[in-house]
Amino acid sequence: MEVVDIVPPMLKDNVVVTTVDEFFKWARGSSIWPMSSGLACCAIEMMSAAAARYDLARFGYEVFRASPRQSDLLIVAGTLTKKMAPPLKRLYEQMPEPKYVMAMGNCACGGGGFSDSYSVIPADQVVPVDIYLPGCPPRPEALIDAMLKIKKMIQHPEVAKVVEDDKVCTE
């Protein structure tokens, strides 16, 4: 006998039955608090995604936190240099579990146009990246799509598969 069978017939349309684990996955995925780490021009696109025209708040992601202890998604937006790598690593380590990382822009994904430079490094050499968002700079619509993919990854961990070196990609 299932728990659903215990619910009286007149209440079946008004009662939701789920597991505590499913409820927590839904709550985590529907209320992601990103930490803004705007390192370059990609940060402008990140700010515009949160503004009125694209309205990231309609998905529940409007609370951009300045403190790592109150956020669960680190958005590395822009060019990451060797000088900024230790502070970024410290911010990542101060975030509570579960934590997720998005590399936003070509520079954060792989060095971009500065990949031959002596000081620019990809974000995945500093912190484990969960989702890559390419573009120079990526459009706000692309950021919203990446946020929805992270939501899907949180709510359905069986969809996300682990690839080499703790890098996660979505199907």
Describe the protein in words:
The model has no long low-confidence stretch (mean pLDDT 82). The chain is of the alpha/beta class and 171 residues long. β2 (73-77), α4 (85-94) and β3 (100-104) form a beta-alpha-beta unit. α2 (20-30) packs antiparallel against α6 (140-155) and α3 packs across α6 (140-155). The strands form two sheets. Strands 1-2-3-4 form a four-stranded parallel β-sheet. Strands 5-6 form a two-stranded antiparallel ribbon. It starts with a helix and ends with a strand. It has helices spanning 3-6, 20-30, 42-50, 85-94, 106-110, 140-155; strands spanning 34-38, 73-77, 100-104, 131-133, 161-163, 167-169.
Distance N terminus to C terminus? 35 Å
Rg for CA atoms:
18 Å
Structural category: alpha/beta
The H-and-E topology, N to C, reads as HHEHEHEHEHEE
Strand order of the largest sheet: 1-2-3-4
- Helical element count? 6
* Helical content class: 25-40%
- Residues in β-strands, percent: 5-15%
